[in-house]
Write a structure and sequence with these properties.
heterodimer, A: eight-stranded parallel β-barrel, 10 helices, 23% strand, globular, B: alpha/beta, Rossmann fold, four-stranded mixed β-sheet, 14 strands
């Protein structure tokens, strides 16, 4: 089995990490570059930056951050938030991101997925789906859950892959921020129907939740924010725990360069 | 950095194919760069820019280890370089079209033929081979073999098991020497990829080094990051220098003489990848 990935997510607002907690050894927990390097040194398999800046005035701030982080952190970097056009995708990639995550803009105009995949390859197009349970199904929502779309999450995931998405980043809005664990039923339902890797998101509150994303949820990667940001667990601890559970992970190597 | 200039339009489009820049990482490692500056004057590294993929991370990675590299789409600059890197992600057809348009296909081939250290990364590795199934694309023909889709339906092998022992000596494989049909082994027949794999293969996979080589020192058993939907099928087993496992073995690193190609992304593979790039930057081809 291929190693499962652990992906810390940094929420950025106006160029700063939201909810920065001061760790030992970090001068500035709000600095995304320091935080990124910190997680990479702990053995993070990838890094995701999610720009939640409300206005588009600070887009160049984001590009500057991507440039600086890509010059210092040598693991794959995914950037999401406010990416609305193929030109946006190009600018983010040219700044040093490896992948771009599309969310609302793809719901508004699904063809954006195809355009980005054609221009830059499916491998750098991540479709981010925010889903909320609605009776016996899951509905796609946008704007952090404020806007219902009427789309069925399973059907949207399948359509996204058909259009060229190379990965699905699936967030349970019901669980997001609750620390109650991923919605493994949602994950398993999507994992069963898509041929591309699935990244679990929303709700991780302890290490057992990470394991459940891979076992019950059949995810290929787990994205988490709170449990790492608050210093509750290090990524190294998470990997040691997963390995103990028989889940394959990349061991942490910080040896010679 | 021009992308952070206040006056620039938001997300202004750039002409990827012609944009050419020298870009130095600004964080750290100045000491290493100074230390290496004497060597660098005879050690120029050009990263071939044909407008596809995250080329900056390759330049960033070299800069971080004290070997500034130049990103260029100019064939003359590639010809003038001491070391040539062909990176890239994206589709083979579009990549070859752009390389041809810019005259970069011949420039890269020349580097390989002239004995310069020549490195292909990811799609760059695939383009080194004769042919890619992706978009039915004739490629550079620097390494013998073809590229085919990582396809559950096709990848199911008959025999399984490890790579065979080399059947042909490297001395028989020098440039220009014809290969007798009896010496050609289709490496793919020995792979046994299971049928339920996700494509693209995205993630870290462990390397099994099967060819002792100074560039691969310490890499056996280490992990590097992969993102790919196609795999290389060397026509000759002994150009396969390392394999990785993704529900079955595939060729992760191939090479011959002054040419080396990696299916993964050393520039995104943390200390393991940076160590490899450093050895490439310092590689003295015998």
């Amino acid at each position: 089995m291929s190693p499962k990935r652990i992906i810390p997510c940094l929420d950025l607002k106006d160029g700063r990490v939201v909810k920065g907690t001061n760790f030992v050894g970090l001068r500035d927990a709000g600095d995304p570059i320091e935080r990124g390097a910190f997680y990479a040194a702990q053995g993070a398999d990838e890094l995701t930056l999610l720009d939640i800046t409300a206005s588009s005035d600070n887009r160049n701030t984001l590009l500057g951050i991507i440039e600086r982080i890509a010059a210092r952190v040598f693991i794959p970097i995914t950037v999401g938030g406010g990416v609305r056009s193929v030109d946006d995708v190009r600018r983010v990639l040219r700044s040093g991101a490896d992948k771009v995550s599309l969310n609302t803009a793809a719901v508004d105009r699904p063809q954006l997925i195809a355009e980005a995949a054609t221009a830059f390859g499916s491998q750098c197009v991540v479709l981010a789906i925010d889903a909320r349970r609605s009776g016996e199904r899951w509905e796609v929502v946008t704007h952090g859950g404020r806007t219902a779309t009427g789309l069925d999450a399973i059907a949207w995931a399948q359509q996204g892959v058909a259009l060229g998405a190379g990965e699905i980043l699936l967030t349970s809005i019901d669980r997001d921020g609750t620390l109650q664990g991923y919605d493994t039923a949602l994950l398993a339902a999507i994992a069963a129907v898509i041929p591309v890797p699935l990244i679990a998101s929303g709700g991780a509150g302890n290490l057992a939740h990470l394991a459940a994303a891979f076992t019950a949820g059949h995810a290929d990667a787990a994205l988490a924010a709170g449990i790492f940001h608050k210093g509750q667990h290090t990524i190294a601890e998470a990997k040691a725990y997963l390995a103990q559970q028989g889940i394959p992970v990349r061991p942490i190597v910080r040896s010679a360069t | 950095m021009k992308t952070t200039n206040q006056g620039e339009p938001l997300f202004a489009p750039t002409d990827d194919a012609t944009e050419s820049e020298q870009w130095h990482a600004t964080t750290g490692n100045e000491a290493a760069a100074t230390q290496n500056s004497k060597l660098k004057t005879q050690n120029s590294i050009v990263v071939v820019d044909y407008g596809l993929g995250n080329l900056r991370s390759v330049v960033n990675a070299f800069a971080s280890i004290g070997y500034p590299a130049t990103l260029s789409s100019d064939a003359a600059a590639v010809r003038a370089a001491d070391r040539v890197v062909l990176p890239g992600v994206g589709a083979a057809g579009e990549a070859m079209r752009r390389l041809r348009e810019l005259g970069l296909d011949d420039a890269v081939r020349e580097a390989a033929t002239m004995g310069k250290p020549t490195l292909g990364l990811c799609l760059g590795m695939q383009l080194f081979f004769d042919y890619s199934e992706e978009n039915d694309t004739p490629c550079l023909g620097i390494l013998p073999g073809k590229v085919r889709r990582l396809n559950p339906g096709i990848n199911v092998g008959q025999q399984g098991g490890p790579l065979p022992a080399p059947t042909v000596g490297t001395e028989a494989l020098q440039q220009g020497e014809p290969r007798a049909p009896t010496e050609i082994a289709t490496v793919s027949t020995i792979y046994n990829l299971q049928s339920t794999i996700k494509i693209p293969h995205i993630g870290w996979s462990q390397l099994t080094v099967c060819h002792a080589h100074p560039l691969l020192t310490g890499m056996d058993g280490e992990y590097i990051y992969f993102v790919h939907s196609y795999i290389c099928e060397p026509m000759i087993a002994d150009i396969a220098w390392a394999t990785a496992d993704y529900s079955g073995e595939f060729v992760a690193i191939a090479g011959r003489g002054n040419v080396i190609a990696v299916q993964g992304h050393p520039e995104r593979s943390d200390v393991v990848g940076l160590g490899f790039l450093k050895r490439f930057a310092e590689w003295q081809v015998l």
